[in-house]
Amino acid sequence: MKIAKLPEEIQQLSTDWHEQGLTVGLVPTMGYLHEGHLSLVEAAVRECDKVLMSIFVNPTQFGPKEDFATYPRDILRDLRLAYGAGVDCVFNPEPKDMYPEGYATYVKVENLSQRLCGQSRPDHFRGVATVVLKLFNITGADYGYFGQKDAQQVIVLQRMVRDLNIPIIIRRVPTVREADGLAKSSRNVYLSPQERAQAPGFYAALLEAKELIDDGETSVSRITNLVRERIENIPLARMDYIELVDAQTLLPLEKIQKPALLAGAVFFGKTRLIDNIFIE
Amino acid sequence: MKIAKLPEEIQQLSTDWHEQGLTVGLVPTMGYLHEGHLSLVEAAVRECDKVLMSIFVNPTQFGPKEDFATYPRDILRDLRLAYGAGVDCVFNPEPKDMYPEGYATYVKVENLSQRLCGQSRPDHFRGVATVVLKLFNITGADYGYFGQKDAQQVIVLQRMVRDLNIPIIIRRVPTVREADGLAKSSRNVYLSPQERAQAPGFYAALLEAKELIDDGETSVSRITNLVRERIENIPLARMDYIELVDAQTLLPLEKIQKPALLAGAVFFGKTRLIDNIFIE
Questions:
Q1: Could you say which of A6, A45, B54, B129 has the lowest number of CB atoms within 10 Å?
Q2: What is the rounded average pLDDT for all residues in chain B?
Q3: pTM of the full predicted structure?
Q4: Which of B105, B111, B248 sits opposite A107 (nearest CB)?
Q5: Cβ contacts (< 8 Å) between B133 and chain A: which residues?
Q6: Inter-chain CB proximity B165 and A249 less than 8 Å
Q7: Three-state DSSP class for A83?
Q8: How big is chain A by its Cα radius of gyration, in Å?
Q9: Hey, of A164, A168, A250, which one would you mutate to test binding to chain B, going by the most B CBs within 10 A of its CB?
Q10: Residue B34 is among the residues annotated as catalytic for this protein
């Protein structure tokens, strides 16, 4: 497995691969890999000749009061896992090579970026869209793999790809969960044992709402109120938001219209977890 | 010469060309071609195997009170000129195919976009950067050709290409002028005979400043004051701005430091003309 630090090395590698007629899949990550990331690699290995993984904790998608400095990192373990999963090359750049002096260009997907998580993280999706566009250009990838856990991210990126005519296909890969239902996330390591014990209640509440919908409930307020009540009853949980929205525009719905997205963010202590269910 | 209206047609054509090992040059224009545009084509023909010209009056780079609706158009004449100059394919899309319903993504080059022309045209370079990035993605071009007359545009786009790791090389092609020095521009047709007669005074003033610099003057205020005075003495001219700035950051200089850019915008009646001289 090759490891590269400079954008130019990756650009050259990808050009070589394409000249050999090989397809290239990109799995963008912030490292501290878990089975969610590995399921993205698995999908990429199945579909592409060569698989590139980027490992980069991207400063521009963290707010000034967020956890950029403390975000968990373990590059040696990541490299071992990437190698084991079949990654052909890891791109692990330094911030100064991604954002050199005088850096000034940002991509913004209007509207979508301000909804759901965008309300408490106003510049987050601008940072995500910008770094992902850079990674698409650096890697020249034919396919990009993203987890459904970050549903809004995938929707924002799909809009960006369509709008900017980027020649890449985006794949959304199902969320990988712990045995008790908690969505795998690098941030789960922040949770205290008590918080960790209560965190699965978040997904349980979403599942209960899904059952209600499957049973024929169409009132969005009844559905979201159920979830909010369940979250309020988890002692260590503090709700950021729970919303049921159109899965394309992310605009609030009054009555269920498919495809819809039931999504939320919940704090356990200082740790903000997100999760969602697509209603298709 | 092929003529295409849909982004997908161009994407396919460019993929075919690249698979044949051919290089592709892009000349983005808003049509109403003049010799300035044709000099871009000439440079592209010299350097690339295939030359694509886009003709698209891009609505997102016009302000609400600007001349989008009245911008001069003559597509049949343009096609004849493009063919004569050696263009292989013209891309002439409809706004609805460039900005379909739900379109939401914009690229902004901070700082640079707010200086010089950005002061009176606050969203102009956002529109330019966005459409040019789309054209780069649609055409997959290896080289892009832009006129020095739009100096700030070239500087903004070079920054965008570096920042977003776009695999394209940007060429800046010297300004083409009328015999009396007026820079060629599609907007020159707006000028009344009286305005047209006085318009060359703008470039004459820039040239006079250039001589002053060549003679050793280093005080930026003395240089710009000379130009402003000369413009004030043209009866039908109304100055928008005259500035002498760092050619990379576009920040004002106090003492000449090379490379510098002496740039301005001057109204003749309702017609806003721009021109500049690089000090290298």
A1: A6
A2: 97
A3: 0.97
A4: B105
A5: 164
A6: no
A7: helix
A8: 19
A9: A164
A10: no
